[in-house]
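Notebook, bench 3.
Goal today: get a predicted structure for 7,8-dihydroneopterin aldolase from Siminovitchia thermophila so we can plan the truncation constructs. The sequence was checked against the plasmid map this morning, with no discrepancies at the termini. Length recorded as 121 residues. Pasting the sequence as submitted so the record is complete.
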Amino acid sequence: MDKIFMNEMELYGYHGVFPEEAKLGQRFRVSVVIETDLQPAGLSDALEKTINYAEVYDLCKEIVEGKRYQLIEAVAEQIAAAILDSFTMAHSTTIKVIKPNPPIPGIYESVAVEITRRRHG
């Protein structure tokens, strides 16, 4: 299966369990992989034969910068469901949500979750 990659889109949201996360917000990085058949687009050079990256970006931005969730797992689920609902050409999607600066003690680069969801039927 062919894949579309959108790597580390940086968005600002208010997700998290701690009160300061709801008040101050923080940056999130979102990566998306969409499995689909890209041959029709490659052969025709027609945008309508593929998944429009700008629309995927707007969808991710709306979810990350919209409703507040406590868990980045919930953010990832919302993005995956929206992609599968919005783009019938998508066979599956993998979503990675990275929280670069969570308010927890320790030395680390970031925390992240990654989920894969497939179209059923």
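The helical segments are 19-24, 39-44, 53-64, 72-86. The radius of gyration is 16 Å.
Flagging this for group meeting.
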